[in-house]
Amino acid sequence: MKDKQATQDGLRLDKWLWAARFYKTRALAVEEIGKGRVEINGQSVKPSRDMKLGDRVKLRQGAVEREVIVRGLSHVRGPAPQAQTLYEETPESIAKREQAAENRRLAPEPAASIEQGRPTKQDRRRLGDWERWSAQID
User: Are strands 43-44 and 64-70 parallel, antiparallel or unpaired?
Assistant: First the structure.
């Protein structure tokens, strides 16, 4: 019964993001909205904004940016397959996300560029011995 009411009256943005499983908690959804990482139809919004069917939501989850179209509204957080029916990701968003994943996969490992990092235990012992037995003025 609540789902029918949600489609007629609209649903809060933070609650929809939580129900669609974009964020683990509503508090996280509110935090991301407050940081300006969520837009509806190209406009920054507040967590209490009512969602409507057909809205374009642009959001960021960590390094991943997505653009989805709202296809359903729900007050409850259900299983992932049910949550995926609440939205449809745009083809441009899918392509951009896959390209970003490929770029991350092909990027060089940052640790590989470090030639000399933190000394090992053996190196630290050698340094300690060197300082202990260095020439001292008596």
Answer: unpaired
Rg (CA), the chain: 25
Cα-Cα-Cα-Cα dihedral sign, residues 9, 12, 15, 17: positive
pLDDT-derived band at 125 (thresholds 50, 70, 90) equals confident
d(CA 53, CA 56): 9
Element (H, E) at 26: helix 26-34
Which position has the token pair 């940016």?
65
Look up tokens 């441009």; give the residue: 92
Torsion of CA 70, 82, 4, 46, to 10 degrees: -40
pTM (predicted TM-score): 0.71
Q: Is the dihedral of CA 9, 10, 16, 20 positive or negative?
A: positive
Q: Which residues pair with 40 in a beta bridge?
A: 43, 57
pLDDT for position 137:
62
**Do 19 and 74 meet the contact criterion of CB atoms below 8 Å apart?**
yes
Structure tokens at 132: 């202990």
CA 48 from chain centre, in angstroms, equals 21
Which pair of structure tokens corresponds to residue 101?
Answer: 């994943």
